[in-house]
């Protein structure tokens, strides 16, 4: 681990970012060149003290998940992310896993949607980053590891993951997840993440195995979703999807028609704070 170079690199990338780049107001009294340390720490989901020690060349070696969070918070390119990992004493992630890295342009859009439920997911349903409003609606979905990172895997192996949808919508949602996983499998082929998920699910879930055997390939996605919140009840939301063709990542944005009860419920999400239970997007 090259502490001095890591510290210099972090400082350089922080000062190169402007508040407008990450959806923050500049304010009339800003004297710092670029972002403040505490602003970057908040974007990375870590304490200001921890991030400050990294910039000062102190503290423990950051883990790979922590470095991935820093790469997202600083809007690093893939080349910059790889450099960050090497400076911290880790091997650069395999470029085959580039779907884990949120493109800076997509991250900039997300930064401007902090009061709107929005999230970036991979083609196999792994949540990479969420806005605070999305955490209030769905719970924190970024902390899972292994196969459980995938929404379809949790859907068919953990009944509690279905609580976000009304029971009468479960069949439709299950069909959607299977259709999307089949499409990802077709694109990636054997050895892909989608293939590994399918191989893991077939012996674990009879429901999945039955649906997978039907070979349904129609696009099951709906732009309207009904979601069930423990405090707000059922919300009928429009789900807009922005596809990043380079990575296959999808930016999901949930909105409601202005002036409707659903819009009023969405406005309450930021007041309620993160949902304690986690659910599938």
From TrEMBL:
Statement: the UniProt record of this protein carries the keyword Nucleotide-binding: no
PROSITE patterns: HTH_CROC1
Keywords: DNA-binding
InterPro entries reported in the protein's UniProt record: Cro/C1-type_HTH, Lambda_DNA-bd_dom_sf, MLTR_LBD
Signal sequence, start to end: none
UniProt cross-references to CDD domains, sorted A to Z: HTH_XRE (cd00093)
Molecular function via GO: DNA binding
Domain HTH cro/C1-type: 33-81
Protein name (database record): DNA-binding protein
